[in-house]
Amino acid sequence: MQLYIQQISQVERPVLAIDHTAWLRPHACTLKERTYEHQPPALPGGIPVGIGQGYSTIALIPSMSGSWALPLRHERLTSWDNPIAFGAQQLAQVCQYFRHRALALFDSEYGCAQDCKSNRYDRC
User: Fold this and answer.
1) What is this structure's pTM?
2) All domains of the chain in start order, with CATH
């Protein structure tokens, strides 16, 4: 992690991507902390909600011309976590290592800016 911190602190305009992803596990009855997760259906007319676990990932996008990302934090959400607040918390944790203000990109789930402001994670 120290190597990551050393390298990311030198980025002039850091671009971060944050995503909440579901890993559906409908048949894993003994898996702890399964929750109802939204997942776009694979087939038209499919069910968009399933049982599984949610994960929140924040990654550094090092170059606009490349196609890869450097994952900085990847954590499982528990049943009592709010994905929006959790992503904002991850953003605050990562931004403390940047010298310059980061540009954060979110998927459509994070469209509720009031949640982030009320949790005081708007430092970046």
Assistant:
1) 0.72
2) 2-24+54-118 (3.10.20)
